[in-house]
Specification:
Elements: H1 3-11, H2 17-34, E1 38-43, E2 48-53, H3 60-80, E3 88-91, E4 97-103, E5 107-113, H4 119-142, H5 153-164
Antiparallel strand pairs: 1-2, 1-5, 3-4, 4-5
Helix pairs in contact: 2-4
Length: 167
């Protein structure tokens, strides 16, 4: 495995359902406080991890890929300007706006908001959310990677093997 592959592997997080439940709880609280329309957590590789709020009409796969690509491009712009990276990127539209926030080095929060809130409200509550999510991600990153099987998995495997070998 090359150096790049090793770096990506070490930065990748494995999310279990209880992890997503904790993240969703934090995102729901943030959404309520910031009055944002929806929030999508994207990994740096461009995959949607979870979402809360009204995402009707939003192609999550496409937005996740574009959010990651946008952040990658912005990182290069930051380097040209002598910065390590920018941690927040905001695009304001006439009706809806989006703020992208780097959380740790592994995920990006896409906050979509409209005229019911302001960029100031979003930025104010984002700081607290980032601190909360970093703690959750540290817990996930520091746990021993374990393989979890659903209840009954062993019986299912045994049945398949019995069928396969006609026992």
């Amino acid at each position: 495995m090359g150096d790049t592959d090793q770096r990506l592997k070490s930065r990748r997080l494995v999310f279990y359902q209880d992890d997503v439940d904790k993240i969703d709880k934090a995102l729901i609280n943030y959404q309520t406080l910031s009055k944002s329309k929806c929030n999508i957590l994207v990994d740096i590789e461009g995959h949607a991890v979870t979402k809360v709020g009204d995402t009707e009409g939003i192609d999550l796969e496409t937005i996740a890929a574009l959010v990651a690509a946008s952040f990658a491009a912005t990182k290069e712009v930051a380097k040209i300007l002598g910065q390590t990276e920018f941690t927040t990127l905001t695009h304001q539209g006439k009706v809806e706006s989006i703020q992208l926030t780097l959380i740790g080095q592994r995920t990006i929060l896409a906050t979509i908001f409209d005229s019911k809130t302001t960029i100031g409200m979003v930025m104010f509550y984002t700081k607290e959310l980032v601190e909360r999510l970093v703690v959750i991600f540290d817990e996930i990153g520091n746990r021993k990677q374990e393989i979890r099987f659903e209840e009954g998995f062993g019986n299912d495997v045994s049945d398949v093997l019995d069928d396969l070998f006609d026992d």
